[in-house]
Amino acid sequence: MRFSRAFIPTMKESPADAEIPSHKLLVRAGFIRKKASGLYDILPLGVRVLLKIERIIREEMNRAGAQEVILPIMHPAELWIESGRWDVYGKEMIKFKDRHERDYALGPTAEEMITDLVRKEVKSYKDLPLNLYQIGRKFRDEIRPRFGLMRAREFIMKDAYSFHASDEDAEREYWNMYETYSRIFKRMGLVFKAVEADTGEIGGKFSHEFMVIADTGEGKLVYCEKCGYAASTEKAEQRKPEIPENREEKFKEIEKVHTPGVKRIEEVSEFLGRDEFPPEKILKLLVYVVDGEPVAIAIRGDKEVEETKLKQVFRGKDVRLATDEEIERFTGQPKGFLSPIGLRIPVYADYSVIPMVNFVAGAGEEDYHIKNVNRGRDFE
After folding, report:
1. What is the DSSP-derived secondary structure letter of residue 241?
2. What is the CATH number of domain 3-190?
3. What are the φ/ψ torsions at residue 221 (nearest 5 degrees)?
4. CA–CA distance, 348 with 330 (Å, rounded to integer)
């Protein structure tokens, strides 16, 4: 086709809702057009790019021994009910009824569909291993679509599913896919890191996310250029601190301090004197409910609890912060002044607490804190 006949509607100005460079450039250069929140028309230039991306993916997946399938976009509710995910997947799943009042969903992922196919058609372990993949549209009713195509309600995804007769063979295929994904991203010229990631509710021995290094995006990772370690912030672990045998700072006597109305870490630090008690010398104590059971989580005051890691540690499906009423009922102490000393529920301490000495914690009663608390002497 002559360039003069090409459909490339460009724009001089970026749309007001475009937050990141890729979104702005794709719209201005005539690759995409917004139809509604999270929904986009892919124009001819955009289609050319997508076809190139799909070609690279197909070549590498086929090279790795995978086979392509096309699964329905409409998913019958029965399969999701059978897996137990129909009621727990969340509002991101778009559900509807057909004219016969049967329940369906627009597929956000395809574990149920592919498993149903394989269980009906694979008759013997001799038919394994089997790796099936598809490139197709997925739908998720994002609460806040943003970043153009990066977080849309309708998107194109490549998903692959492998089936094996043994754990050893499944692990072999895992690393086969790891190398395949690495080749795909290298061929696309992307700067990426394969990082250790949370296995999620599906579980498993290990999981990796391939994260592209960029200034924009919602995922965060940590990595070391020297040793090569890389992990998502949900998975990353710090080394357990070593406590010197002859530490210079000795344990001081506990001192109870009146702190009227002072609850937050920053407020406590300011009240007691930031020079002597910065946030990192204050203990943060939070009460969580894990599968119905209360636990207290102790962490250094300048840090935050990563709830995904709590699920990993406790192997719990339902992990949430306790309500104010639950806190008082479980602990007998007021929120904002919780003390690890004599607490009647289990206390689990983050590694950040191990080197803390003579720190501040709640006193377990309204408007009071305690100075010079020490793990090992005052609580375990």
Report:
1. P
2. 3.30.930.10
3. -140, 160
4. 15
Q: Which CATH number fits domain 255-373: 3.40.50.300, 3.30.300.180, 3.90.960.10, 3.90.550.10?
A: 3.90.960.10
Contacts of 222 (CB under 8 A, 6+ apart): 230, 231, 233, 236
Q: Which long-range contacts (CB under 8 A, 24 or more apart) does 26-29 make?
A: 26/148, 26/149, 27/148
Residues 17-41 have pLDDT tens digits of 888 889 999 999 999 999 999 999 9
- Strand 293-300, strand 347-349: pairing: parallel
| Interatomic CA distance for residues 222 and 240, integer angstroms | 17
Q: What are phi and psi of 257, to 5 degrees?
A: -125, 135
pLDDT average, residue stretch 92-121: 96
pTM: predicted TM-score of the whole model, two decimal places:
0.73
Domain ranges in the chain are 3-190, 191-236, 255-373
Phi, psi of 362 (to 5 degrees): -65, 155
Token pair listed for 275: 């020079």
Contact 300, 356 (CB under 8 A): yes
Q: In this predicted structure, what is the pLDDT of residue 2?
A: 82
User: Alpha-carbon distance 181 to 66, whole Å?
Assistant: 13
> Structure tokens of 80?
């999701």
β-strands 192-196, 154-163 pairing: unpaired
The single-letter code of the amino acid at 188 is: M
d(CA 201, CA 257): 44
C-alpha neighbours within 13 Å on the C-beta side of residue 131 = 18
